[in-house]
Amino acid sequence: MVEIIGATRLHPLQAGHSSALSVSVTLAENATRLSLRAREDAIPAISKALGLSLPTKPKTSTSEGTRSALWLGPDEWLIIDTADSSVVADIAKAKVLHSAVDISHRNIGILVSGKGADAVVNGGCPQDLSLAVFPVGAASRTVLGKIEIVLWRLAENEFRVECWRSFSNYAYAFLQESARDVAV
Amino acid sequence: MAQSTHSGSNRIAGIGRLVPAKTVRFTFDGQNLTGLEGDTLASALLANGIHLVGRSFKYHRPRGILSAGSEEPNALVDIERDKSRKQPNVRATVQEIYDGLKAKSQNRWPSLTFDIGAINDVFSPMLPAGFYYKTFMWPKFAWKTIYEPKIRAAAGLGVVPGEPDTDRYSNRFAHCDVLVIGAGAAGLAAALSAASTGLQVILCDEQPEVGGALRYENDVQIDGISGYEWAVAAYAKLREMKNVRVLTRTTAFGYYAQNFVGLVERLSDHLSRPAAEMPRERLWQVRASKVVLATGAIERHMVFANNDRPGIMLASAARLFLNQYGVAVGRKVGVYTANDSAYAAAIDLKRAGIDVPVIVDTRNNPSSAIIDEARSLGIEVLTGHAVYSAGGKRRISSVSIKPNEGGIERKITVDALIMSAGWTPSVHLFSQSRGKVAWDADNERFLPGTYAQNCVSVGACNGTDNLQSALDEAIAAGGGQAGTIVATGGTNWIAGMIGSAPGAGADTTVKAFVDFQNDVTAKDVRLAVREGMHSIEHIKRFTTNGMATDQGKTSNLHGLAIAAEALDKPIPSVGLTTFRAPFTPVTFGAIVNHARHDLFDPTRRTPMHAWHEAQGAPFEDVGQWKRAWYYPQAGEDMHAAVNRECVAVRNQAGIFDASTLGKIEVVGPDSAKFLELLYTNPWEKLGVGRCRYGIMLREDGFIYDDGVVGRLAEDRFHVTTTTGGAPRVMHHMEDYLQTEFPHLNVWLTSTTEQWAVIAVQGPKAREIISPLVEGIDLSNEAMPHMSVREGKICGVPTRLFRMSFTGEAGYEINVPADYGKAVWEAVYEQGKPFGLTPYGTETMHVLRAEKGYIIVGQDTDGTVTPQDAGLTWAIGKNKTDYVGIRGLLRRDLVSDGRKQLVGLKTVDPKIVLEEGAQIVANPNQPVPMTMIGHVTSSYWSENCGRSIALALVIDGTKRLGERLYVPMPNGVIEVEVTGMVFFDEKGERLNG
Question: Using only C-alpha atoms, what is the Rg of chain B?
Answer without folding.
Answer: 38
